[in-house]
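Q: Hi! First time doing this. I have a protein sequence and I read that you can turn it into a structure. Is that right? Here it is:
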Amino acid sequence: MLAPVFQEPIDPALIVRDPALQLARLRAQTRGRPEVWVFGYASLIWRPEFDAVEHRPALVRGWHRALRMRSRVNRGTPQQPGLVFALLPGGSCRGVVYRLRPEAVDGELDRLWAREMPTGVYDPRWLPCTTSQGNVSALAFTLNRRSDSYVGRLPDDQLLHILRHASGRCGRTLDYLAETAAALAARGVRDREIERLMALARRHGLI
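A: Yes, that's right. Below is the predicted 3D structure, encoded as structure tokens:
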């Protein structure tokens, strides 16, 4: 059985959200692995920002992609939080796995952490990924529904407000959604909720 980096926490308040400590724990995990893979399900598909030896379409079972994580840095601010995708328990998710260059793993993880884990909000896990060339175990960024960054299902009027107004150091939530939708469509991946959100944005003149 493939062990996760962290087990599902009982109480997020008990987890030390120190990104440096989380990265140190992950490094200890990678040292015993002949290959290090990363699973991308949103912006890591269209803006991976690391040099991979190879990449493959991949399927993760038991987790699904959802625009349910509050973003106060990358796609929003504390005053106007945005939203970003996270992997939540249940269902399945199609994305891309990347194999890192063995000699560059430490440096690439530093860059990845600075981008994805500035506040340590995600629960990094090793997840089994199905590809056409066999299964691999890949690092993925998941979210616990007990996290205070989990927003649950929002009504459409709140979603539209966020899409109109939320912007952070990496740009607007709206652009993040549109880029992810385009990247999935280009790979022939259907995500009905993303398609619904894009249709909602179009109906209200945001795109």
